[in-house]
Design brief:
Oligomer: single chain
Order of helices and strands: EHEEHHEHHEHHEHEHHHHHHEEEEH
Shape: globular
Number of strands: 11
Strand content: 15-25%
Radius of gyration: 22 Å
Number of helices: 15
């Protein structure tokens, strides 16, 4: 009988999503007798096992990391350290670092499996995307596995659904939906199916206070986050999209406020532009419709768009609640009745769930998994 392989988990990024992920690991990893946590890092420090036969504590990791005097490792230093063991390595990158993303091809070529929610790895330079995909299994039979479900839609099964459609030979014709929990929350309250809704600046303020926006709401209102997700899906269906600047992306930031020096200044001045958004809402209401902020990919036309669009009140996209995301896949098999994925598309816990689920798949794909009990 072949000796059971040992699988070592290395985690880069331990705040926010990373912290939620490690909390979930405390429930997941004890189920696997041959899997251990060996490395954790955040921007300025790291924690690693003294030898590959040891493992880090999932109960005290946060305290241990704070107490560690070891600096964070560069991607090359991390790769060099991985080379000192014959264990299977799963690198979980919970950061949004472009530097680490740019090093994915090196990790994958060295048979290191990569699990990540990092959108920048898959939505920035087209050449990097190609090098990542070409370095991973199965395009590279000797490469590591690659999982990035949480790069689009947090824990929602969007990437895996699209992969299943493509790998089973379906023809994807169009993808459309609401890809931002922030934008969903804003428009569900600003332009609800029933009632008048609040003023635009008030709704942005409520979203900010509730933690749905970035500290500077312009980082959500510029549409770039949605555009990055569209780039990822468009590339998966075969469109050679160079970057988020290669297609129309509508920004909801008034031109006059683009130069604000802070998020607070932006919020202070935003009420002066409420009338502009009221006109957008009223125009849709005159037709018996509501306005929503959506992203769409028309595969046949090779067209990608991000921005405001009007929908009939009976449309699935119009009827969302809270901060839910909804993504519709129009395919040859599904015809005019699209396959729809809907649910919470933002938040640390659900994003970490997507990362954790990918890690479990990676453990099994490393052919080294064994359940306890």
């Amino acid at each position: 009988m072949a000796q059971e392989k040992k699988v070592s988990i290395a985690v880069v990024g331990a705040g926010g999503v990373g912290r939620c992920f490690l909390q979930q690991c405390s429930q997941i990893l004890p189920q696997y007798s041959n899997v251990s946590l060996v490395f954790i890092s955040r921007s300025n420090r790291s924690l690693r096992v003294p030898t590959w036969n040891h493992e880090l504590s999932l109960e005290t990791w946060e305290k241990d990391l704070v107490a560690s005097a070891d600096p964070a490792l560069s991607p090359q230093e991390l790769l060099d350290w991985f080379g000192s063991t014959e264990n299977e390595i799963i690198l979980v990158d919970n950061t949004s670092s472009q530097d680490i993303a740019g090093f994915y091809p090196n990790f994958l070529k060295d048979k290191i499996t990569v699990v990540t929610p990092n959108k920048k790895a898959f939505s920035s330079d087209l050449d990097l995307w190609k090098r990542i995909v070409d370095s991973a299994y199965p395009n590279n039979p000797d490469g590591g596995f690659l999982y990035h479900e949480a790069s689009v839609g947090a824990g929602l099964p969007i990437i895996s659904t699209l992969k299943d459609l493509l790998e089973t030979g379906d023809e994807v014709q169009k993808i459309e939906g609401i890809f931002s929990g922030t934008m969903s929350f804003l428009f569900n309250n600003f332009a609800p199916l029933e009632g008048e809704g609040g003023k635009w600046s008030d709704e942005v303020s409520k979203a900010k206070d509730a933690g749905y926006t970035e500290p500077d709401p312009r980082d959500d209102l510029n549409g770039v986050d949605v555009a990055r997700k569209l780039v990822i899906l468009a590339r998966m269906v075969g469109l050679q999209i160079e970057s988020t600047s290669a297609f129309p992306v509508q920004s909801l930031i008034p031109t006059e406020l683009e130069s604000c020096t802070s998020g607070d200044e932006f919020m202070e001045k935003l009420p002066a532009f409420d009338d502009e958004m009221e006109k957008v809402k009223a125009k849709a209401e005159e037709k018996g419709k509501v306005v929503r902020f959506v992203g769409s990919i028309d595969v046949g036309r090779k067209a990608v768009e991000v921005g405001l669009k009007e929908f009939d009140k009976g449309h699935a996209i119009a009827g969302l609640k809270g901060s839910d995301n909804i993504i519709s896949f129009y395919t040859k098999r599904y015809g005019s009745n699209p396959l729809i994925v809907q649910g919470a598309g933002a938040g640390g816990e659900v994003t970490a769930m997507g990362v954790s689920a990918d890690m479990i798949k990676a453990i099994k794909d490393c052919h080294g998994w064994k359940r306890v009990g």
